[in-house]
User: Fold these one by one.
Assistant:
Number 1:
Amino acid sequence: MRTASIFSVFFLVTAISLLPAQDPQQRSVAPARDGGVREVLESIVIPPVANAPFTATLDTEWLKYAGEGATITMVNERHIARDGRGRIYEERWYLVPKNGKVKSTMNWIQIADPKRRTLYNCSMARHICELKNYDPTDDLAAAKPLKPLSPNAQERGPVTVEDLGNSNIAGIETLGRRETTTIEAGTIGNDQPLTATTEYWHSQELGLNLLSIRNSPMFGKQTFTITELTPAEPDPQLFELPAGFQVSDQRKNPPISW
């Protein structure tokens, strides 16, 4: 579940200005400015697979390449879970500078039910849970077991695919695969060829990637690592809406956004 419209990671990297209290008539308003970037980091897909429960911590590290060889690294960690019915619980925490003084805080709780086809996005700031439709079709496709590559499947135009063997991650056996994509000069306005790689280590048992690494000169290096994994039924309280939160049903009239 990682599409921006359904179950995305709302990891927005923002700058927050803390202004002292002022008289409303004296408060200045910053003028609008041209340009800027709105960033959303997509996380791992958690398919709503039944009979494969777990509880885990997901560590995220996003390294972005800056000018003159500099890098910027943002991190967070959050709790995720899936019960035997395939329901999914995810926390969303703000990304913060690695080894910095800023502490991450939780901004969303998300609960999806594949049988009811419902998704609750619960804002910790507003104490409101937005109720939306949830279509698990695409996410379930990500749970399919990996099969050994045939010789013809290893070269697919600009994409090269290779098997990486087996690895034990968080006590679970996984199969690794790497996809390398070459973008020829001029394809997307690039003045020289670009190479991007996607590496993932998939648990056939859980139908889930326990380690994913995406590296691109455009978006930097994104690493998602499952830790502290317990392959057992999670606390059922996780799938209850937070106490005191109002529900806003947006299934018929979803908000307009970009």
Number 2:
Amino acid sequence: MVQKELSTKNGAILCGDAMQYLRKLPSDSVDLIFTSPPFDLVKEKSYGNFKGDAYQAWISEFGVEFYRVLKPSGSLVMDLGSGWTPKHPTKNLYEYRLLLNFCDNLGFHLAQDFFWWNPSKLPTPAQWVTIERIRVKEAVNKIWWFSKTTRPKADNKKVLQRYSKSMKTLIESGVYNGGDRPSGHNISTKFATNNGGAIPPNLIAIANTSSSDYYSKRCKEENIKVHPARMPHLLAEFFIRFLSDEGDIVLDPFAGSCVTGKVAEDLSRRWTCVELNQEFVDGAKFRFEREATRNIGQQEYKILAPNFQLFVD
């Protein structure tokens, strides 16, 4: 059973089985699925997670429905954390198996791969990083941007970075070293044109350090468990701005604390968040209280390096 728990101007939080909800959706009806599903990890998490072949079978079943409900112009963006093999300092390749399965067997295209670098991540796994000292800390999540067709809706003008100081100087002076480079690239006269900002790379640096925000505060006040794997608002904002327009339909079937819904609400997208755990749903409601601060446009955030900053209008 899937039950509506909260309605807003633009969307709703549902509590229940996301697969049940997906199977009731019409085909070709969703513009963007943005989500971070449970990962295939050695240590079982409180929100539940499968392992190995069982994980691949489980996520593949969702993949079939994702493909069906997406519009031809739509996108599926999945944030996936890295895993390790049990008792050994070698990597679990589950996210790559998922990638190949979705493209080879389910019909998706890999529009682009992104990498979210969390500079504040703790040195894990501790056994290999801080005890035996034979590995470096894990600090990057893979983000697969899948599409149903080869040309999904996307506009990088919506996620431009602030120009660096040197680029601003170059644009203002109009003096630069154009022509051929040893790499074979040709720098044209259009290079010095002011396009309103720089095109961001596919390596996104956003520290995930929020532990005293309004959501966390209200959860503690009401003795509700804070979701252990909260996504930063700015990550959701990047992809929702990039891959959808106002009025588009955004879906998060593994909503957790409903960051996707909050960002979609503030960006005037129609949205649905589905979460199986009732306690996480109860906490997610705090994001939509009148006293909760608006997250969009409140801050700039860094992409790759401190002098590169994404900005919003």
